[in-house]
Specification:
It is found in: Membrane. The chain is mainly alpha-helical. The protein contains 19 helices and 6 strands.
Length: 464
């Protein structure tokens, strides 16, 4: 209260100084007007006039639920110490999430894509709700609707890009869809411009700063959530193994880091997350490398996991049947020279048979165990900035959906970059999709050029 009095006296002093520089009028009403103008110049919205300006503390506004559990489970665990109670609750719901993950994998690519979309929407909701609480904009229903409009628009663009890329052959055979595909990006841009115009029209005096801040908040949320989920979809289409193995690595690292930290953790790792320890970080890293190597070996043996999702002309549908690429075929590797001498001494072989993907999995596991946790640290810093414990209370023992997927989004980006940099080559299916967008005369020209080239290289027998 004394601090408020000092602030008011300071404002009053400023008002008096300004007043002395005027024509000399010193009436009581003039002083009040000057004081009011000085106060209003520092106010951005009606909420600030009510004394709500200051440090942001959302702990009472955002529902958090790391310690929440169903009533029956609460009754069963009420006699346990808080440390062990949280360990049991977290363990039970980790098992349930793993079970759900396996069921979704069994459901195939469509189930995975639907799950990714649902997770994306829930993560966006948790982030945007924090934004609403931070900027405290009331009485502006159109602005809340605009946030979701931008989510729908961005999903239309990104998911449409996936459909064009992977289903282009099928879509081009349907006349009424061909125009939508051809002008997909233009339609997406027009939809975004519509939202942009509505945002400008929704601007309200005294809310400008907060509206623009929340506009930026919305777009950052879209960048973090929607673009990353789009990359997850692209990884799925390259083969389920590119989705399952990285996701499993993050899960393994999270679980093992928690276990090692719980039983052996003594040395703090980072101030953003006081419960994180070096013992948990190192133990989780080693466990992830071993787990990823073993899981890759098992999954490389099944075409269901390694084949990309493509449209089959013969079957007339999407298929996951293929001849596995060189990445998923056993290859003999010569061991390093310093090991060969030792192995020769004992009469052991100096070569080893591995799937090449297993070597790539080492890169994925190193990223998930060294860089991946920084996604969690970033989320921890974000939550500390607004004094909240979790993003939500959906999963007892874990918090919100975003609390579980903060590292997954970063991992999905790395996997997509890794595939495009070291693995991916354009398939005939994708090239055919691009060819179908050419005019008929251009397609014929391409056909004759390709035919002549193949005949000159003796790959195709010249027709008589």
């Amino acid at each position: 209260m004394s601090e408020n009095l000092r602030k008011r006296s300071g404002v009053a002093g400023d008002a008096e100084n300004v007043q002395e520089k005027t024509d000399g009028a010193d009436t009581h009403s003039d002083k009040e007007n000057i004081q009011s103008n000085l106060r209003d110049s520092e106010i951005d919205s009606e909420d600030d006039k009510n004394g709500r300006k200051g440090s942001i503390d959302l702990s009472s506004n955002i529902p958090t639920g790391t310690n929440k559990a169903p009533f029956m489970l609460e009754m069963l665990l009420q006699d346990l110490p808080d440390k062990w109670r949280n360990w049991v609750v977290r363990g039970i719901f980790s098992f349930l999430m793993l079970t759900f993950f396996l069921v979704v994998i069994y459901g195939g690519p469509l189930a995975l894509m639907i799950t990714t979309l649902v997770v994306q929407v829930k993560c966006f909701q948790e982030i945007i709700n924090i934004g609403y609480s931070v900027y405290r904009i009331h009485g502006l229903p159109w602005f809340r609707s605009l946030s979701w409009y931008f989510l729908i628009t961005s999903n239309y663009f990104f998911y449409g890009e996936s459909l064009v890329e992977y289903f282009g052959v099928v879509i081009n055979r349907t006349d009424f869809l061909r125009g939508i595909v051809t002008y997909h990006r233009f339609i997406s841009f027009c939809l975004y411009c519509g939202g942009f115009v509505l945002f400008v029209l929704s601007l309200v005096k005294k809310y400008y700063m907060k509206q623009f801040s929340l506009f930026a908040w919305t777009h950052v949320a879209l960048l973090i959530v929607v673009t990353q989920s789009y990359l997850i979809i692209k990884n799925i289409f390259e083969g389920l193994i590119w989705f399952i193995v990285p996701v499993s690595m993050i899960i393994c690292n999270d679980i093992m880091a928690y276990v090692f930290g719980f039983f052996f953790g003594k040395t703090p790792l980072i101030k953003l997350s006081p419960k994180k320890t070096w013992e948990g970080f190192i133990g989780g890293g080693f466990s992830t490398v071993i787990f990823g190597f073993m899981m890759s070996y098992i999954m490389c043996q099944y075409p269901y996991f390694v084949c990309p999702i493509e449209y089959s002309e013969a079957l007339g549908r999407m298929t996951m049947e293929c001849e596995p690429s060189i990445l998923f075929r056993p290859t003999m590797y010569e061991l390093p020279g310093f090991l060969c001498g030792l192995l020769n001494t004992f009469g052991l072989p100096t070569t080893v048979s591995l799937y090449p993907f297993m070597l790539h999995s080492l890169s994925l596991s190193l990223f998930s165990s060294v860089i991946g946790p920084f996604g969690g640290f970033f989320a921890s810093g974000f939550k500390r900035a607004f004094k909240i414990k979790d993003f939500g209370d959906v999963i007892p023992g874990h918090g919100g959906i975003m609390d579980r997927f903060d590292c997954q989004f970063l991992m999905a980006t790395f996997v997509n970059v890794y595939i495009s940099s070291f693995i991916q080559t354009d398939s005939p299916q994708k090239l055919l999709t691009q060819v179908l967008y050419l005019k008929p005369e251009q397609q014929l020209q391409l056909f004759h050029m390709l035919k002549d080239t193949l005949e000159n290289r003796n790959i195709l027998v010249p027709s008589v």
